[in-house]
Amino acid sequence: MKLMLTFCRLLRIICICLRYRLDELVLSGIRHPWAYGLLRVARLGRPPSQPRGERLRLALESLGPIFVKFGQVMSTRRDLIPADVALELARLQDKVPPFPAELAVATIQAELGAPPQQLFRHFDMTPVASASIAQVHFAELHDGRQVAVKVLRPGMLKAIEKDLALMRVMAAWLERLTADGRRLRPRDVVAEFDNYLHDELDLMREAANCSQLRRNFGPGSGREGMLLVPEVFWDYTANSVFTMERMHGIQVSQIERLREAGMDIPALARRGVEIFFTQVFTDGFFHADMHPGNILVSNAPETLGQYIALDFGIVGSLSEFDKNYLAQNFLAFFQRDYRRVAQLHIESGWAPPETREEELEGAVRAVCEPYFDRPLAEISLGQVLLRLFQTSRRFNVSIQPQLVLLQKTLLNVEGMGRELDPNLDLWKTAKPYLERWMRERIGWKGVRRRLEQEVPQWGQLLPQLPRLVHAQLSRPDSSVALQIELQRLRKAQETGNRLTSGLLIVLILALCVALWALTQGGFQP
């Protein structure tokens, strides 16, 4: 039965692919004589009347929520797919038909142990938003606080496992049949999508991400007023249910409404860039799904103009090494020091050690110089990173997943900032922040901060230091025994070498005797 269901699903996928002429899309990417022949046969029918990206987007929408989510993830991998396809896939919306409210009620009861009518004073049965993974209902707690309840679509785990199995098979065939397939590494893309999807299916994980981001910008962080993050209500949260504070604001893309509310739009654009770089370089933990649907601006009098973050299913994390590498790269870009950019790639280990520094420097210069000839306000930092990643592929540079996620988020932030203020100079906004960050890391402040971080560990070790030193000094001298053992091993090795030499001489003599006997006819009958 399971095999039959898988076969039926595969048959449906094939039918939809043929309907949107994805066969023509695949065959056109195969560099092989028989592929050209099949392509000519395929084109004897009705030629595609729509661009390839649009056909792919429509096919993914027809295949259901999992394929829609896959298209959304693929749209962020502009280092792997053509630009026209990426732009079209970016149009995939989270608006999908909601599932029945009764199923949401059943999920809440199963996860939280009681129906929503008992858990909440009021629960709105009509979802306010519906996405490919979950949908959101507004509710009110018994103490009067307004909340938003996110409920996972029922049966999602089984559905994605079946579709992911098919995606892996198709990716393997694509990688085997086409040169572009091998270059784009579709199996790696599916594996990356698998990780993203399973993370988004665990709403407890999303709630933890939300809680961490709220703490990073909450009271005592020194950044109060920069970013508002909803409070998590853990008593009403489980693997398939996530209850958070209901947030009120204006979507960041609704610029006219923001102006009517009396907000300083250019200042709002600059603040968004500052929030992003604070998350990346100070915390190493950033909201990685910052499209306009997930970003609001508060219109409440007490928090007017503050950004509000929503949807924490995808976040990025950077190590200290990653942060230092990125900051130095950005500053080298600002200073047009292309040799330093090449050195950073090789020193980091992302470029093979045999890479010629001057060749990589020339490639980086070819990427960056066209941008520097424009006014700074017209330069896209995200596009520079994108071109750099594409160029790096020629040198077998391994692009780390967290950096691709960062580049995708930077494109989102830059796009939102430019939409708010077309004259936004992202470079001018970011450079002072990065320079200040580097000074704090390298200067006395950075040293003092690292010492403060190490003090608790040293506080535990220092009292033990005299005992550890005494124990080390009290150990018997093992150097004599070690020397005797080395001499014994050397003698054993010499004995073995003599024995091997003796056996070799005997074998050579035996071989010589045998050859002499043959030449003398001693073995003739």
UniProtKB/TrEMBL annotation:
The gene is ubiB. SUPFAM superfamilies: Protein kinase-like (PK-like). Pathway: Cofactor biosynthesis; ubiquinone biosynthesis [regulation]. The keyword Coiled coil does not apply. The chain crosses the membrane at residues 499-518. InterPro entries: ABC1_dom, Kinase-like_dom_sf, Prot_kinase_dom, UbiB, UbiB_bact, UbiB_kinase. NCBIfam families: PRK04750.1 (NF003404), UbiB (TIGR01982). This is Ubiquinone biosynthesis regulatory protein kinase UbiB. It comes from Mesopusillimonas faecipullorum. It comes from the Bacteria. Coiled coil: none annotated. Keywords: ATP-binding, Cell inner membrane, Cell membrane, Kinase, Membrane, Nucleotide-binding, Transferase, Transmembrane, Transmembrane helix, Ubiquinone, Ubiquinone biosynthesis. Belongs to the protein kinase superfamily. ADCK protein kinase family. PROSITE patterns: PROTEIN_KINASE_DOM (PS50011). Residues 122-455 form the Protein kinase domain. The keyword Calcium does not apply.
